[in-house]
Amino acid sequence: MKWEDNVRKVVPYVAGEQPNKANMIKLNTNECPYPPAPGVRKLAEEMDYDKLRLYPDTDSTMLVKELADYYGVKPAQVFVGVGSDDVLATAFVTFFDSGKPILFPDITYSFYDVWADLYRIPYIKCPLKDDWHLDVELFKQPNGGVIFPNPNAPTGLFEDLSVVEEILEANRDVVVIVDEAYVDFGGESCLPLLEKYDNLLVVQTFSKSRSMAGLRIGFCIGSEKMIKYLNDVKFSINSYTMNMPSQVMAVEAVRDDAYFKSVTAKIIATRERVKKEMIELGFTFPDSRTNFIFASHKSVPAKEIFEALREQDIYVRFWNKERINNSLRITIGTDEEMDTMLDFLRTFLKDR
Ligand code: PMP
Fold first, then answer.
1. Is there a shared CATH topology between the 3-35+258-349 domain and the 50-256 domain?
2. In the CATH scheme, what architecture does the domain 50-256 have?
3. What is the mean pLDDT of the segment spanning 192-208?
4. 109 neighbors 141 (Cβ within 8 angstroms)
5. Quick check: CB of 179 below 6 Å from ligand 1?
6. Is 84 in the pocket of ligand 1 (CB under 6 A)?
């Protein structure tokens, strides 16, 4: 037997590229174009670097408490991780262990099937309807758990909380994870449904609406029992997940609610303006409630536009995958960045 026969093989998730060019416009990984809250900068500048000798707080106690206060839940209902990817990966391995297939949409965050494959969790991809909304009936078949983002990515579409509740109602015996990575851009969180469903886990991130993708901070909120199970798994892999600077700066980001609200409002305003201009340029798209637009052009293939933008050092995201290979996911940047992109498209798409 060769050692390679014993390797756990998996096809990894492919993250959006991180080019590093001087004047590029980076609209490909849904980062926030604005800096984190001013207090975060102050903390970074004043940080006592001698403290880096020490291990961080394994429980991220301050951050957990801050999030619990902010969202009106108990600290024992909050779990934090190194980005919501870490929280989601831990949730997959913790809650999806029945041997039955878990359910998620066919068009969704492309990390879900990677985690499922890694942890040997069977799954069924439930096709979205032609209008890109969830086909709720498909989430009523027998399963070992359910996960979907709301709003969904890369479509940007938000499902009404009545739809989320219908899925919860049909799945009382399994864990239902709602990935709310983009909820702060005009969606509505399903956190209030925690009162009724102790099998609901709501996952959020600091990477988009709180401008802190580089620090890798994510969290989830659920019943105390669920959070205990998550911690049991976390403490069986790595006790010291979130580093000290991230813990401290995340607390400050939550405290500055006015800044958070102003940044998300600014992005929503830019998004709504860009939607109108893109329609004039011949694009169609689902009505995004996120910090990106998932757009197709009436006559020019997405790949061609993607490559033309790239030539200009304007980076957007394109997947050569069934059902979505004529769409571009364009992150909402600053007004200036979006104007540069729109100006180029106006010339490039002229008469087409
Ligand atoms: N969920 C969804 C739907 C996402 O698009 C992303 C961003 N790639 C994540 C989770 C993970 O984000 P992060 O790990 O930066 O919190």
1. no
2. 3-Layer(aba) Sandwich (3.40)
3. 98
4. no
5. yes
6. yes
Residue 352 or 142, more confident: 142
Angle between helices 224-234 and 83-95 (to 10 degrees): 100
Assess whether pLDDT exceeds 90 at residue 41: yes
Q: pTM to 2 decimals?
A: 0.97
For domain 3-35+258-349, give the CATH superfamily. Aspartate Aminotransferase, domain 1 (3.90.1150.10)
Contact 104 CB / ligand 1 (< 6 Å): no
Question: pLDDT value at position 204?
Answer: 98
Asked if 145 and 102 touch (Cβ cutoff 8 Å), the reply is yes
pLDDT at position 1 is: 82
Is any atom of ligand 1 closer than 6 Å to the C-beta of 83? yes
Task: Inform me whether the pLDDT recorded for 191 exceeds 90.
Answer: yes
Instruction: Tell me the CA–centroid distance for residue 83 and ligand 1, in Å.
Output: 7
How far apart are the CA of 85 and the centre of ligand 1, in A?
6
Residue nearest to atom 6 of ligand 1 (CA): 181
| pLDDT value for 83 | 98
Average pLDDT over residues 254-262: 98
pLDDT of 17 strictly over 90? no
pLDDT at residue 289, rounded to an integer: 98
Task: Answer whether 85 contacts ligand 1 (Cβ < 6 A).
Answer: yes
The answer to whether the CB of 90 is under 6 A from ligand 1 is no
What is the domain partition of the chain in residue ranges? Answer: 3-35+258-349, 50-256
